[in-house]
Amino acid sequence: MTAAVVDIVEAVDRAQWRAWLAAHGDNASEAWLVLGRGGSPTPRVAHREAIEEAVAGGWIDSLARRRDDDSWLLRFTPRNPRSSWSLVNHEIVATLTAQGLMTPRGQAAVDLAKRTGTWSMLADAQRGVVPGDLRAALDAAPSATFDGWSHSARRAALEHLARAKRPATREQRIAEIVARATADAPARGRRPHAEPDRPGAEPGVRPVPTMIEPVRTEPGGPGGRPCGGLS
Prior knowledge:
By secondary structure, this protein is an alpha/beta fold. It is built from 8 helices and 5 strands. It has a 5-stranded mixed beta sheet with strand order 1-2-4-3-5. β1, α1 and β2 form a beta-alpha-beta unit. α6 runs parallel beside α8 and α7 (151-162) runs antiparallel to α8. The longest helix has 16 residues, at 167-182.
């Protein structure tokens, strides 16, 4: 079956966004959800609630795009089974589970992640735990300044290391971190698009600086088909 592509989705509240995911979550390949800027008078689902409902439905947020002075767009896609889970999303799942809001599709994504290890892959890195092999390499380089890096720089480096799948790749990344720490240049690391750091606040990073013209949708609320596509 060819995946349906739905560009622009508008939801006035959490219930409408949840309904869209229930109706399209199994066959849509993406959704660009319209979210309101601070102070916008237009009723729209809140950023945090949008992310929570995506997690509940087995989807994940990624890129943000400018739209207009009143709103912005956030891209949602079905979660890749190989993607890692952040501690923020661990907390969201715990809350949704307690509230009985996890859907079968969302729970299946959690269960699969726990079986494959992607659920806990980044846990230590996001807690700031330095693994033994990296610590040994840093201790062998007395001039390394890794412990003096900012929290965000250390976390990015630790997450990048945690995602290494092969021993050789892990060794290479350790060497890179030590080299940068010795040169006093914090590692940039690689951050996943799928995991938000602070859901609930309009993102100030990762926007695509392309202005998007509002896309007119047919009647039918958030499940309506778009009449135009993203540029």
